[in-house]
Amino acid sequence: xxxxxxxxxxxxxxxxxxxxxxxxxxxxxxxxxxxxxxxxxxxxxxxxxxxxxxxxxxxxxxxxxxxxxxxxxxxxxxxxxxxxxxxxxxxxxxxxxxxxxxxxxxxxxxxxxxxxxxxxxxxxxxxxxxxxxxxxxxxxxxxxxxxxxxxxxxxxxxxxxxxxxxxxxxxxxxxxxxxxxxxxxxxxxxxxxxxxxxxxxxxxxxxxxxxxxxxxxxxxxxxxxxxxxxxxxxxxxxxxxxxxxxxxxxx
Length: 251
Prior knowledge:
By secondary structure, the protein is an alpha/beta fold. It has a single domain (2-187), classed as Formyl transferase, N-terminal domain (Rossmann fold), CATH 3.40.50. Strand 8 and strand 9 form a beta hairpin. The N and C termini lie far apart (42 Å). The mean pLDDT is 92. Helix 1 packs parallel to helix 2 and helix 1 packs parallel to helix 6 (151-175). It has seven helices and nine strands, in the order E-H-E-H-E-H-E-H-E-H-E-E-H-H-E-E. The strands form two sheets. The chain has a seven-stranded mixed beta sheet, covered by helices on one side. A two-stranded antiparallel ribbon has the order 8-9.
């Protein structure tokens, strides 16, 4: 089976795993590299290391680029562009989403799981359709979110699950054993709001207990929670004094 791997984020582990397992990845599709999206670089270097064709695309030319490639299965793993419906009609296309759909649809849903105090997240592999994250589900795997998790640790947990789950789904597609389960719209939630640095500002007049989830939902390294005192920006960092070195959570 000839696989077309589309990615726009730090998903090199999924690509590497497929290649290690002998899957025939014929090309890797990514957006054009810019200073703003250097996170694509890890997937590109992984493809180059294995001698896989890398095809940079734009929103405008992606249809033409895909038409030039012979493939059987279209795998989207962190790809940021909406795929035209006509392209999805010709070949089977699947997407890897780092939440338990139909909850937390959208490309910026991760932090809101923390903000909302969720106790569980996971990875969903679903059929790619013109409507974002609404296609039939092929497989899911869950993991716990602890009170010490952060947005980054939840995303890391999802990335560790993705490679094997994706590989297993591909094997079932090959054998015809895969099942397609429609999503339950009554349980759906969607978050497409792009969080910006200013969203890390907290209201310091609120009780600390009520701010805890909001603080750990911020990017603790690049955009930590903050507030102002007499015009000075004060940052907030959380850590545990007795945290063990092998603890899985970040705080």
